[in-house]
Design a protein that fits this description.
120 residues, mainly alpha
Amino acid sequence: MTEPLTYQNVVQRFQSAVPELSDHADAFYEDLPHDAFGTWTLALIKLLQHSSVDGNLLQKVADFLDAMAESPDKEVVNLLEVSVLEILADDEACIGRIEPRLGELARAHLDRVRQGGFPM
């Protein structure tokens, strides 16, 4: 990714990076990032629970979560913690499939979410 993720571009960038999940949220979500990411996270959990998910999809998601963790925009980091990691952390089987693919900083955010100490 060339330019940093911002709260203003994060929905559009996710739709480009992970098109397999982006059809689970309507276009109006561009203005509601927390709703969009909550919807996408729940869709990912459903896919993980009810079907075999391609490793490439999991890696795309993990790579995007890493980019969110590295964003200089604190609203993007909050979005990661509140609307993605908090939801994923509630399902140990699902987070167990994604966590090994996460980078160090995204894992640090996940650990903070698990401890109830977010945001960073």
